[in-house]
Every structure is written in C-alpha cells, then in structure tokens.
Specification:
With 124 residues, this protein is mainly α. It has helices at residues 3-26, 32-52, 61-87, 93-123.
Length: 124
Amino acid sequence: MNTLNQARHLQDRTKAFAVRIIKSFARLPNDEAARIIGRQFLRSGTSLAAKYRSPCRARSTADFISKISVVAEEADETLFWFELLVEAELVETKLVEPLMNECKGTAKDLLCIPHDCETQSLNH
C-alpha cells in the first residue's frame, strides 16, 4: 500500500472510530459522572479523527511529524477516558473492549509514523 492509500485508510479508520465513539457515548448511563466523563470521552474520541486530517496536509516532514504527534496524544487521551469509564464502573469492560482495542491499535500505529518518517528521511 502506498503512502497516499495508507493515509486514506487511516483517515477512514479514524472516522469510523469516531462514529463508534458517538454511538458508545449515546449508550452511557444517564447520571452526572457518566455525562461529565462521557463528554470528555466523546470530545477526545471524535477529535482524533478530525485532527488526523491536519497531518495529511502538512507542508514538510517536520510539520507532519509534529501534527501526527498531536493525533497520537489524542488517541492516548481517549484511552485514558475509556479506562476511567471502566474503572469507575460506569461501563462494563466487555462492552467497550473491542473499541478500546481499536483505540490502542490506532495509537500504536500513530506512534510508529514519526519514527518511520525519520527513518525514511535519513535513508534518502
């Protein structure tokens, strides 16, 4: 898969993830703690997809690495809110585990991108 196809694939993947976050948010319990933590979860989970578009328009490798790092931070923040929802027993682990695993996989992929870019620029 070439770089453009990889970027499109990740763009589609993060957008689908955001849709799943929205649907998960809608199923949270209707109490104050779930609403407050849920809003943070919703913001970071959907922001991941929105912020991924920015690196796709980067003007240089350094700009790309900087912007993709912000997206990786957003994925990590989303994982934090997942963990908090589970540990506070606002949701059952088994209900969010597939989405958490997707978030972990996306975060891992995003963290590898800056390293891959730096390696490629050193080799050229």
